[in-house]
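Z., the sequence and structure:
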Amino acid sequence: MKLFPLDKTGAAILLSAALPLSVFAEHAQMEEVLVRDHELGTSLQVEQSLTPGGVSVLDSASLMERNTGNLADALRYIPGVWSASTSGSDSIFFSSRGSNLDATNYDMNGIKLLQDGLPVTTADGNNHNRIIDPLASRYASIARGANALKYGASTLGGAIDFVTPTARNSDAKQLFLGFGSFGQKQARLTLGSVLSESVDGLVTLEKKQRDGYRDHNESERKGVYANLGWQLSENIESRFFFTYIKNDEELAGALTEAEFAADPDQAGATAESGNFQVDVDTRRFANKTTFTLSDNSKLEMGVYRENQHLFHPIVDKVLVDFDGPGPDQPVEVFSLLIDTKHQDQGVVLRFSHTLGDHSILAGVNWGENKVEGGNYRNDGGMRNGLTTIVDNSAESLETFVMDRWQFSERWTLVYGVQAISTERDVRNTSVSSGALRNPSEDYNSFNPRVGAIYQWSDDIEVFGNLSKLYEAPTNFELEDEVSASGATLDAMQGQVLEVGSRGRHEFGHDNFWRWDVSLYYALIEDEILSQDDPSAPGTSVTSNVDDTVHAGVEALIDASFAISHTARIEPLVSVTVNEFSFDGDTTYGDNRFPAAPKYVVHGEIMYRHDNGFYAGPTFDVVDERYADFSNSFTIDSYTLLGFRLGVNREAWQVYLDIRNITDEEYVSVHSVVDTVAADSAIFNAGEPPSAYAGFVFRF
């Protein structure tokens, strides 16, 4: 593998991606955050001032005001991100700026996930086995699209960094109990202590289970999240992290249009007979050490290693009766149970330095991923003979440097470049024939970015940037390459232009409204798209598309109106408008992409009292979307109404979250095909009326 040396990474760059003024990305409470948590508030102010593009911040404390059963719940108010749970469990679909809009949405590529700045996404770019529990974070920064350069990412969707709470910056002793519809039960116990001036530790134990609102939909998750901090000296701090997650989920399977109309909560025709499930055991060790070199410079070094075991029956027996009504019984021609072990490891370096009017950040991410095991025939959820030996690997090196140059009182120029060198190696050996399928390729690119921030006034700024996007195929996509040979895929790449504004306007006495708005337009070449393989349901075929367009508007607006000396009304609305389409394609012309609604609106109107009480309605408005690339089948739009209320006091907290009050039947997640047919089993039902309660005790 040819890796770029650091001295070829080029000039300095922008500190692009992180946490904006739009802390109100989950009922935004910037002032409260700044008062309650100086460290978090300072970080938010600094990062916002460095980012000429769309970024949002999710304060995990706000997630305890409502039911957060999965990452889709947590990302509900983040504009530009379309996320939904397949059936209420941890299995979710998510897309940022049009990433992942195809049949391989199970690998959830296009968004780089990190914990404490250390990658969780594998070296080949997929998130198939690992979605981070948002309740295990102190806050998360969501950098959409090219704004993720701070993390070394150049993906279409950007990056999300989840920052771990410690005993020094969070409620170190608390108990959370949650209950709700469809058998949901959840308990989290957090214990932490500052053991001395130099040592602190925190551990969270978690158990969650759910029966589900569909048949064959039970799930159970057990987790341990721990970290230990050690202040070696005045200038050196090191923190060790450990995560263990055992997550077992039954999969209800997708339905045809007729099945959905008859009973949207039933399991798919073969989900129960094939005992579809996804069971993942995860162990992760990591360390991050920070060296304060001077008042103006800092070096961060991180290492991580993660091991997983995936057990995944996903395709039931496909039987063919070759002699028709003759004497021979139907013969199994295909079924699939994946049983693999995954190993990820990597190293991260970050150097930051302030030099006059320049704030410089340089970084390196190196990661390696290995997948070993096999594909088996599936007999009711049990292995029934090995069919394919899997021995896949990937390696990736991302180097980047960025500079924020405040060359005048109101103008800040942010610029830089990322270099990526990454390798894919897929080795699938057929047990029956011994034939080896070995698509293997190296992908290399330099990806520049330039942007600017203009401080219109003390409370208002406008920004813009022009950036290059680059994303190599995942090993899943190479395995599914349409020719099923040793051929590979090209990397997708393109240019994106983005402009926007964020700010705050005060009016009257103690009233204000805030906004964070971004508009972007991206021209993509060789976008990698897959569709469900009709000859082997549950698997996909993947190819490059010459030209596509990804454009949209992302807006987050909130306000606060005093109605008395002790109470306020606080509305919040998140609006996403999408325009994702082919651009003169020989097969699909200018068809719109499936899976993404043209617009999505999430909002709430909350009454809040100084005694900690809050209550108000919530709403979700989702436009129509296509189910296929041919644009022949439209999934209906829907509107969901809910209500939540609660009380938040110093020593305790309680909430009630009621959803889908009007009993709307709707499709939450669907697979993608070329053209929907009557027997296309691709639809998953959204959540019926439900209610959830949670209790937090701090001691």
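Helices lie at 30-36, 38-49, 60-63, 71-74, 257-262, 475-479. The longest strand covers residues 331-355.

Let me know what you think.
H.
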